[in-house]
Amino acid sequence: xxxxxxxxxxxxxxxxxxxxxxxxxxxxxxxxxxxxxxxxxxxxxxxxxxxxxxxxxxxxxxxxxxxxxxxxxxxxxxxxxxxxxxxxxxxxxxxxxxxxxxxxxxxxxxxxxxxxxxxxxxxxxxxxxxxxxxxxxxxxxxxxxxxxxxxxxxxxxxxxxxxxxxxxxxxxxxxxxxxxxxxxxxxxxxxxxxxxxxxxxxxxxxxxxxxxxxxxxxxxxxxxxxxxxxxxxxxxxxxxxxxxxxxxxxxxxxxxxxxxxxxxxxxxxxxxxxxxxxxxxxxxxxxxxxxxxxxxxxxxxxxxxxx
Amino acid sequence: xxxxxxxxxxxxxxxxxxxxxxxxxxxxxxxxxxxxxxxxxxxxxxxxxxxxxxxxxxxxxxxxxxxxxxxxxxxxxxxxxxxxxxxxxxxxxxxxxxxxxxxxxxxxxxxxxxxxxxxxxxxxxxxxxxxxxxxxxxxxxxxxxxxxxxxxxxxxxxxxxxxxxxxxxxxxxxxxxxxxxxxxxxxxxxxxxxxxxxxxxxxxxxxxxxxxxxxxxxxxxxxxxxxxxxxxxxxxxxxxxxxxxxxxxxxxxxxxxxxxxxxxxxxxxxxxxxxxxxxxxxxxxxxxxxxxxxxxxxxxxxxxxxxxxxxxxxxxxxxxxxxxxxxxxxxxxxxxxxxxxxxxxxxxxxxxxxxxxxxxxxxxxxxxxx
Amino acid sequence: xxxxxxxxxxxxxxxxxxxxxxxxxxxxxxxxxxxxxxxxxxxxxxxxxxxxxxxxxxxxxxxxxxxxxxxxxxxxxxxxxxxxxxxxxxxxxxxxxxxxxxxxxxxxxxxxxxxxxxxxxxxxxxxxxxxxxxxxxxxxxxxxxxxxxxxxxxxxxxxxxxxxxxxxxxxxxxxxxxxxxxxxxxxxxxxxxxxxxxxxxxxxxxxxxxxxxxxxxxxxxxxxxxxxxxxxxxxxxxxxxxxxxxxxxxxxxxxxxxxxxxxxxxxxxxxxxxxxxxxxxxxxxxxxxxxxxxxxxxxxxxxxxxxxxxxxxxxxxxxxxxxxxxxxxxxxxxxxxxxxxxxxxxxxxxxxxxxxxxxxxxxxxxxxxxxxxxxxxxxxxxxxxxxxxxxxxxxxxxxxxxxxx
Lengths: 307, 370, 405
Prior knowledge:
The complex is a heterotrimer of chains A (about 300), B (about 375) and C (about 400). With about 300 residues, chain A is an all-alpha fold. Helices cover about 70% and strands about 0% of the residues of chain A. Chain A has one domain (about 65-305): MetI-like fold (Orthogonal Bundle), CATH 1.10.3720.10. Chain B folds into 2 domains: about 5-225, P-loop containing nucleotide triphosphate hydrolases (Rossmann fold); about 230-365, CATH 2.40.50.140. In chain B, the strands form 4 sheets. A 6-stranded mixed β-sheet of chain B has the order 6-7-8-3-9-10, sandwiched between helices. A 5-stranded mixed β-barrel of chain B has the order 11-12-13-20-14. In chain B, strands 15-19-16-17-18 form a 5-stranded antiparallel β-sheet, with no helix packed on it. The two termini of chain B are about 45 Å apart. The model of chain B has no long low-confidence stretch (mean pLDDT about 85). Chain C is mainly alpha-helical. The termini of chain C are far apart. At the A-C interface, helix 1, helix 2, helix 4, helix 5 and helix 6 of A face helix 1, helix 3, helix 4, helix 5 and helix 6 of C.
């Protein structure tokens, strides 16, 4: 063991060695691990005003978790239908957005990956990246303008005469899904694009040679090869959708409360930090479980997730 | 320039976990010598080089430079300079900055360094290339820059890790002579590792032949070639025909080997075999292709054998005749071209002779693999 | 088969149009609304070309304050993230192989953890420390800038690390050994050999870190304390007080981004051209007149110059143009329409009254009247909807309860 320490300092020298240890140590321990543990611990504590923390009332409790599942004591339903419902809907919506993005982006990623490069492709890629340098708030805002009751789409439809009354896109959550889908297109395209780029064109030529129709080529040749990219993209989009805050706040209708918004409320108006922490832990654990099972399901290793 | 400094490896073992990379190495290199480690890939020669330069510590034994034990002394503090196989020139620095890097880390000022760089550039015959980047130089030029960079550090020992392996044939031959010249001019100890025996033999004062971590023999080129210590050395260095058999009798320096079907053959015993080879032992006899000749009527029976001609090759200076011996093994005979025409028909039998003093007999052992 | 090909091509083009329409459409719409005079950003109907919203933007103190905070936090995050990311990448190359996967997972995790969780955990953790150490709520550990920098750096360092790992993979480790062999200490070898090699990666990581920090919302929204960033301010405005000054800001950002992208493209093109050192320039500058050197083969530069020219002329135009007249015209137009409406309705009422008096007495006032409109009409010709200032529209998103600006 000490041999390892000695080798390390021999290899890096005293100054550099200490610097590396301090920097990485600070990052891993103080910024990554401890805050999560602290939040976990906090979620098990009572909601107390600061003077009372550390005092006799500061014991451990699972009341916040109980609240999430069972609701407030004395409520009329035996389960916390509202919050659980929101939680479930958030996950389903995230799933929907992921699938939407996948279907939307796959063709373009394929086209970019298989093309021979050159000016046109570079321009496309540039066009793809530019919207992402715009702040996500502004992007959501743009969708608000377009989908609003007096927004562009409604105006166009009304003038054409397709509809008689404006469609409340916002209430119908269409705006939200469009906005969320929009937000993560880049994250879905690039992993798939990268993987497909490394696919040998000859394989596709060979399949076509053997008479396979285009859909079968994709089904049997391209998609299995692109699996790491696809699952990497889906994982990121799902995680980011489930954890999104800005888009639901700006584009969500009254019926599409997002779980993250509930957490936000507990930290702001609700003022019940431990409860917010508990909900956040639930979100975190769920995301981790889903990511791990996705990785296991599609046999993707952690090393594949890197742009 | 420093004068030659001795390098000694005393009982050096180098292990990586379970794997033994270098086994009980004992090497004494005199100051000012051009010393080579010769062997196939993976034999441990690079490991020894790294141990001498300080990137490795031996698991057992000592590495001494100039009589000082180098244990615990890092590569930047040892009086050695290493020329890497891929040269490792700093790509973002100009040629002159590369050369004087060792001065830069000592804090020498820019003007002084520039002056020194110009001197060295003159010495390696690249007078105006100082401001170029390494990527703009040819292979041979990069080689010379690497040498200049190492020499600028004024080491006591210069270590070279297969420096010529990436060059084409003509350049390689040219660099061989050049390296030897530089070494003799500068006078410091060179330790050179290679798998090319032509290089080792032409350039070195002494050669250590290695295989699988073991040093089979340390001697000068001629001894390695004419008086190999083990069957491995005999078969690795140059080409050699092998005959197996049992020792029938020993008379002074000569041994009579009873081969299966070629009869009893007479051969000199290798120096290392004197005293260890006894009657009845399994032995191998080695005869170089150039030691063979077509038999005459006066050839004694003990140094003649008959074989079937398989092929004949005309190489210009040399005629190579490939025969199949009675055990089915290939025998190669090389004759100097004295204007003779076709020697024999394919498939016919040919009797050849060899000089017993040029042959060498050793206890049976592992040969170099093909 | 040929028809198949055409069909496929057609679909491909249609798909591309739809896709990029989806991608770029919102931006274009937003930009247009920045110049339209109505108080709520809209593209149609077009009322008056105006630059006043840019003025409003410039005078908005909170936005300015937000920009300032974003910059400070951005710089702090860049420094911390680049340093940690670099250290992380270097350690990865040296770590014991068995530990490597675990280590990698831990340092990549912040990318996968939802931003809100990072924000919350940072907030909670430092709050606890604050209390444990007995500091007041004014201390460093409660400071919004401190917390935001830490929270953002946690995951931005991971992105930086990925950039560095990619660059390090191409690094020849023999180079550091050669440096050591020539007498350099480890620190010297690092400074003179490794760092210069990493410089381009450090540059791109820094830019990446700054951009990521600037636009971060999920994490920052929990940690900003008393120092809201531009993004936070934007979010507040978008949810509670929309006016086209936001569109104006968006337009500025879009233009800046375009300029940035073009500048980058120019830089890259010049690099490429420099590499093709002796390549015949004639092939590129075909045409009747020779463009100056920077433009040869560099369409991006040409576009840039055109944009600059366009930009300057627009700004000059904007200074002298006043939409006041246009607004007055529009207002008068609307008033006229209103008057007509009122006339029509009076007509109707009269007719109905007459009808009624024919039919007999009935309860009066049961008929609907036209919706009351003020003398400053904000809505377009169709008046029955689009009344965005109605309470229900303001409350659409966000937590329950009114929050004023």
